[in-house]
Amino acid sequence: MDTMQMTLYDVLRMVIAFLLVITIVFINALVMGYLERKVAAKIQRRWGPMEVGLQGWLQMVLDGVKIIAKQLIVPRDADRVVFRVAPLLSFTPVVLPFLVLPFAKNLVGRDINLGLIFIIAVSSINVLSIFVAGWASNNKYSLFGAVRSVSQNIAYEIPILLSLLSVVLITHTYSMQGIVAAQGTVWFCLVQPVACLIYLVSATAETNRAPFDLPEAESELTAGYHTEYSGFGFSLFMIAEYANMFIVCAVATVLFFGGWHGPFSGEYLGVLWFLLKVFLLMLTMIWVRWTYPRVRFDQLMNLAWKYLIPFSLVNLLLTALIVKCI
Amino acid sequence: MSGYFSDLITGSKSLLVGLGVTLKALVSPVVTVQYPREKIDVSPAFRGHIDLMKDETTGTHRCIVCLSCMKACPCQCITVEGEKQEGVKGKVLTLFTLDFTKCSLCGLCVESCKPHAIDFSDEYELAGFSREEFFYDLLKRVKERA
Amino acid sequence: MATKLERMAGSKHRFLLNMGPQHPSTHGVLRVVLEMDGEYAMELDPVLGYGHRMHEKMAEVRPTSGFYPNTARMDYLGAILFSHGYVGLLERMAGVEVPERAEYIRVITAELNRISSHLVGIGAYVLDLGAFTPILYAFDDREKILDILEAITGSRLTYCYFRAGGVSRDIDDTFIRRTREFIDRMRNRMPMYHDLVTDNIIFLKRTKEIGLIDRDMAIRYGLTGPVLRGSGIAYDVRKSEPYSIYDRFDFEIPTGENGDSFDRYLVRMEEIVQSLRIIEQALDALPDGPVMAKTKKIKLPAGECNYTVEAARGSLSYYLVGDGSDTPYRLKIRVPSYANLSPLPELCRGILLSDLVTAMGSLDLVIPEIDR
Amino acid sequence: MKSSEAILKLMEAGFQAESVDVNGVGYHVRAHVDAEQVRSFAQWLLAQGFFIDFLTAVDASPRIQMIYQFAHYDHPCRINARVPLPDSGAIDTISDIYQGADWHERETRDFFGVHFSGHHNLVPLILCDEDKDLKPLLKKEGDRKSLEEIGWADVPAAD
User: Fold this and answer.
1) Prediction ipTM score
2) Radius of gyration over alpha carbons of chain D, in Å?
């Protein structure tokens, strides 16, 4: 009876956490969509959305309603089942990592001791969804996007893992809370600046953001893997992209920028610091996106294999030596 | 190998400079205008569609039905008709229409008009749901304005 | 339209890819059929004619004055430059003397138009490479030119301002003041463009060594304009066969060194600076007087006449055969983009799709000019 | 090369050429070339470094006149050649000498129905396949002017 109650409590906890996560993902997409448009507009010295609500803040809600009301068009020769599944598939991997993200000292879905590995493992599924979407569309441009996405993700998983390992070598734990707790005095972006930079660059590539947005590459592949998607399928991809951004920035915050640490971060108030850091990182990604041209595919690979991976390997080696000596 | 590190350094520097440019723009004032809310003054030379001008002294148009605008128009979008009326010297204008769907706003008709009877209007908010809305009866328009 | 490539049964690993007519990087209704091997474009076949309006036929059925608006609609970015060629042709053929002041005004407006065209060309090119912001900065500057030109020509894009014998409206002090302000503004803005685009390592890596054009290729295809000058050949109609009053101004012909996409971009940037110089000199030397010749009506003799000008994208020739009447018997318009696009199959054979976009963008095509 | 020099060289190479008033007609050298000389003419021009400006046709009675215009990058020398089209309606292609002529020739085929023998890909460029015999720039019977009326003296075509 006792164990039964515990299970029920656990299930309830999981359900609440899951609902919260879904809400966060959607709200994050709304906020980020708005910020992206507004920051891009300001960078380009225009106003951006202004019509609906004060400073146009309701625009994204309205766009969401509009896009849900739109017809779902499936191309004639597309693989219908896979085509429909792909957006959902892109949604799963971006929801799961939220369960282990430490928002504050006591605010975490479940602090498992392999949290970091869990995030890396789950978010790798993302590339599968892009590939499936590109393949099922039966469109050559989409297929190009899919193929690019796969090789890009394979190349950039390695520097990400290596740079994260350098941090793990210091903390001796994979637990997200453990890593945050280790940064009470000094953030790891000061201890591991190279790993931090490598992670940020690779994370931009991992999330397919400009200047590494080759799977989408609007001017070359029209819109890459989501060329054929309309309505809600398309919006799921967009939501997934922003959620993905949130996750990589959250991981960066946890590993390099002290997580929820900050002045007056008590049991729960740390969430404010955490979100502030995550959103600052995401704003930087937006800022970068609206500044640079897109790199070419072989240059992207060059960057990963010739610069990021050797540098992260050397960095890992040095870290290991120093940790050993101390 | 020689270019390996120099590429890295100059490249990173150029990227930072680029970020600086956009950051500066981010905090600079906006240059666009919120169009339906605020409007910019129309330049006096603006070429809208043509309109018959009202003569201040006579209170009506100045057209003498010489048909030179009709002849000058490369798109044949102007139709002018007149008739002889008793007691009036020359012809009297009975019809002056503009098919604005064909007009290319070149201004040749205005230049050809000796008595300066036609001129450009400064209307630029022209949108409609049907073709017919752009067949203007200029004679009627000048009378309505009077 | 079935193209040669479509009729061909490709080898096993190759497949056909349709780029356009509604592709973001073809700048209009151009279609390029590509035979791809992976992401490499092995064979290319441009398909034209989706927006052809047969301006040459239109010229044969209306009086010469009726063709003024048409000139603006071929190259919508360099409308004044296209008008310049046409009125020049009429004046040469009919032997009309153009007043000094009108010639200066023509040069000033034409050079302003050239700058605005280059700004769009550069902006759209960088947009092809994936950077969205520079085009909006370029449009910000271009908007100033459009405002200046609107104040005298009355329109913002398809100017119909030049007439055989002069210009349709005189400029005033406001125009001169605003133009001078623009010159200062543009000179101050150039370093910003270089910081944001020219020096950017990604831009450099994307454009260097891509789409190489050498002298031999330029001769065989008849390339002109910045596309040619990027290859180091200093050919500019304004210098080699000075029309209007271009021989009175001191300016240089910027040239590139390697003939790659980056050099073509750089030549356009430099040309903006040179155009500013020309405008400044013309404003300083602007004489007083009428802006329209006294001639009543243009009368074309029987016979042929050619008039070549430097449009924003290269040399533009109008070739007219007259039969003594007011209507041209035949008007041939040689547009620069037509020749500049034609080397595309040779230029882009065997390169990546991304590089194809780079190389094609660097040609600065205006499709309505090709489909005139 | 100066235009006078170009004329001398043209004469040496066996083509007829004359100097014209550049302010009157807009080009420096007028060449008279026969239809069968077109290829050797183009080869000569390519060897001298001329680039192709344009190639077109004018429909006049008794026969269509082909217009070739070339210019030079280094010297102000613009050569215009008028070639009467043989009665067969076909003329040799120069698209293998000047690749830039390829599209001009295809366009001329579209608009005038001129056949370019030896052209590697003489399919419609501007017109669609259904309209390939439209020939929009050919004059209607009655509108077509004679060569004298458009200010040209007839040079008989050598078939």
Assistant:
1) 0.86
2) 16
